[in-house]
Amino acid sequence: MKLVIVSGLSGAGKTVALKQFEDLGWYCIDNIPLALIEPMMRRALSKRAGKRYERLALGIDARETAAQIRRFPNYLTRLRAKGVDVQVLFLTAQDEVLLRRYSETRRKHPLSSGKLSLLEAVRKERQLLQPIANFVEEPLDTSHMNLHELREAVYQRISEAVAGQLSVLFLSFGFKNGTPAGVDYLFDVRCLPNPHWEPGLRKLTGRDAKVGEWLKSHTPVTAMIHDVQGFLETWLPAFRAQDRAYLTIAIGCTGGQHRSVYIVERLAEHFRERLDQVMHKHRDLP
C-alpha cells in the first residue's frame, strides 16, 4: 500500500496535485483531519477493504488546527511503524507569486481576516505548515510553473515511486530568464560556440538538424557532452544506491534555444539506454 500526504501553501497548487493523483487512479481525500488518518488506515489495511485503498493520497493544509499540525511527525512515525509506505509531497511558492495568484483569482486565503493582510496570512501559513515541510527532502517549488508544468512535475514524482528506480529529468533553460528551481545538478554551457550568431541558424532551435550539425562540428561541444556524460555515469549509480527517487539535471545557455537544447537532447538519448526512467524538457522553448 502507498500513502501520499499532499500538503503545501494555499495557492501553490495542492488541488491540482491531488487532481493529478486522482486522474492516475489514486483514491484521494482532501482536507481530512489528521486525527482520522490512523483509523482510516486501519480500515484501508483490512482484508475487507480489498484493493480500493492500495494507492491513497490525502490532502492536509492550513485548514487543520495548529495543534494537530504540530503532531504531524508523531502521526507519520506511527504509520511507518505499522508498515505503511508514506511519502510527503509539499508544494511551495515565493510570496510574491502567491500574492499575484490570489490577486488574479480573487480567492480568499484560508487564514486571511480583518486583522491580517494577505501577505501576513501567507507568511503565517508558511510558519504553521513548517512541521509538515520539515519532513520533505525537497519541496516542490511551483513559482515558475503553469498548470501543465505542475501536473508534469507531480507525475514525475508519482512515476518514480517504483521501488529501486531512479527517474531523471534533463532540463534546458536560458540564464537570461532565470535559473530553474529544484535542480540537483546545473551545468553552464555558455562557454560553447553559439549558433545565435549564425544568421541562418538564429531562428532555429537545438532540435533542428542544421543546428545539431553545426554544434557537432565544434570540438568543445562534443567534449562538453562527453564530460557531462562521464560525470553522470560515475555518480548517478550512487544516487540510485541511496534509493533516491528522482533527479533533475539542468543545462543552461544564454537564451535556452540552441546549445542547452541540443545537449539535453543528446544526454536524454544517451541515458535512455542506461537508466530506469529518463525525461527531458526545454523550459524556454514554446
Could you describe the 3D structure shown?
The protein has 286 residues and is an alpha/beta fold. The protein has two domains: 2-159, P-loop containing nucleotide triphosphate hydrolases (Rossmann fold), CATH 3.40.50; 167-282, no CATH class. It has helices at 14-23, 37-44, 66-70, 72-81, 95-105, 118-128, 130-133, 147-159, 209-216, 219-241, 259-271, and strands spanning 2-8, 27-30, 55-60, 85-92, 140-141, 167-174, 185-188, 246-253, 277-282. Helix 1 crosses helix 8 (147-159) and helix 10 (219-241) crosses helix 11 (259-271).
Under CATH, the topology of the largest domain can be stated as Rossmann fold
Shape: globular
Mean pLDDT: 88
Largest sheet: 5 strands, parallel
The second-level CATH architecture of the largest domain is 3-Layer(aba) Sandwich
SSE class:
alpha/beta
Q: Please bin the fraction of helical residues.
A: 40-55%
How many DSSP E strands?
Answer: 9
Quickly count the domains. 2
**CATH H-level homologous superfamily name of the largest domain:** P-loop containing nucleotide triphosphate hydrolases
Strand order in the largest sheet: 2-3-1-4-5
SSE succession: EHEHEHHEHHHEHEEHHEHE
Strand content: 15-25%
Gyration radius over CA: 22 Å
If helices are DSSP runs of H or I spanning 4 or more residues, what is the number of helices? Answer: 11
Structure described in brief:
This protein has 286 residues and is of the alpha/beta class. It has eleven helices and nine strands. It has a five-stranded parallel sheet with strand order 2-3-1-4-5, sandwiched between helices.
